Amino acid sequence: MDELSPTKINRWKTLDKDLGRIALLEDASAMIARPTVAVGLAVIFILVCGLAAAGVVGAGPGTITIVIAAAFGAYMALNIGANDVANNMGPAVGANALTMSGALVIAAIFETAGSMIAGGDVVSTISSGIVAPSAVADPTIFIRAMMAALIASSVWLNLATWLGAPVSTTHAIVGGVMGAGVAAAGFAAVQWGTLGQIAASWVISPVMGGLIAAILLAFINRYIKDASDRLDAARRWVPALIGLMAGTFAAYLALKGLRQVADISMTQSLLLGLAVGLIAWAIFRPIIRRQSEAMANRKRDLKKLFSLPLIASAALLSFAHGANDVANAVGPLAAIVHAVHSADASEAVAIPTWVMAIGALGISFGLLLFGPRLIRLVGQEITKLNQMRAYCVALSAAVTVIAASALGLPVSSTHIALGGVFGVGFFREWEEERRARVLNLKKGKPVAPEERKRRKLVRRVHVLGIGAAWVVTVPLTALLSALIFWSIGLVS
């Protein structure tokens, strides 16, 4: 074969460069198209929700108002799915117990189920518990206030998601409702007692989530991870932890879901939870034993036993989140529909099924379209998680959210879940510091400052950034909501 001439070689090099540029251009186009497609699908969903609302309510006075409110309710639900659901699935993904696609599918199913089965009580708190409809004499003013709250919270949440900040959607909507209520009828319109309880829960819930997660991790470390025979300890305790999770879920489902068809007391629901927990413990004892038979007595192998309960607890947390946070999307929408159709603003706010469906589907679509970014942040960038640590985070968050939702209190699942992540991380720091102190005391030397700094296992930049976002959300959305309320008044 004849050798290629220098001219031909240069031509081939030029062709390779051109093909490389084309491939690079195609990759860049694909990267641009993905968010564009997601935004396009989100816009279509919002339009469909508005048209569906028009079809349900029919032609009549207030139809346009309900259509606009339904569109913004759908917009809010999308943003909740994009931002808040990361706290449920982030630990499981960060611990490699779930793939991103598997997490998205599980979360979408259980978020929808939780919203539709058990979301009504908290919707009532958001729609009428913060600003009473009776406090605003003119229904038109009340509708304008709820619309301003929806728009303000949606815009801020969208911006926070774009910035990569896992803010509290509950903070956003409560701040929006409060700001619009004050602008509409003064400070007397706000039910400060209810708001005080909600505000207290914002402080209590992350502390509870962090403490429960740290206690669970301390228990697992002492009785399983640090045991001389780790596999034997795991066979004893892992089924019990699974039973605890299953019993909690059963009690909550009975209290919230079955109450719609039967009168079930707290005692009955707890007894049912105890029964389900014992059954789950009995079922998983042989399963965990079989899984552990082929494992070595090593910490690395031990973590695999927590993958299945971690997945189950993440699903449980998604159900609880759907029940609790659907209120943030459709609470104001339910109040607007009530105000349009009811002559008496003081009546209890009914929750139409189509309103709940907008919230449930919107959360799921928002998760699928925009959720992966913050899922990675929560699961991988705050502190290092493995299956055991992530399970502690998920179970502690689930227990806290379920307790709050059973009381009809719209606590922030963001605070609870991230409190659990921080709790696990700070507990690990404390434990490492304690062990190093004991070891150095035996050696007769103190712990060096640089060694203390090296053992910081929680990224402080995320602690400060997330904390700042939590602080600014309520006043910012309240101010924005008040401005939007006044702007709507000027336009109309």
From TrEMBL:
**Main localisation:** membrane
* Any single GO BP term: phosphate ion transmembrane transport
Concerning PANTHER family, the annotation shows:
PHOSPHATE TRANSPORTER
**GO annotations of cellular component type:** membrane
Q: Name one GO molecular function term.
A: phosphate transmembrane transporter activity
Q: Which residues cross the membrane?
A: 37-57, 63-81, 141-160, 172-193, 199-224, 236-255, 267-284, 305-323, 351-370, 390-407, 413-430, 461-488
Q: Superkingdom, according to UniProt?
A: Bacteria
UniProt topology in membrane: Multi-pass membrane protein
Taking the record's annotation, the residue ranges forming a coiled coil are: none
Name of the protein: Phosphate transporter
**What is a single Pfam family found in this protein's UniProt entry?**
PHO4
Q: Does the keyword Transmembrane apply?
A: yes
Give the record's family classification: Belongs to the inorganic phosphate transporter (PiT) (TC 2.A.20) family.
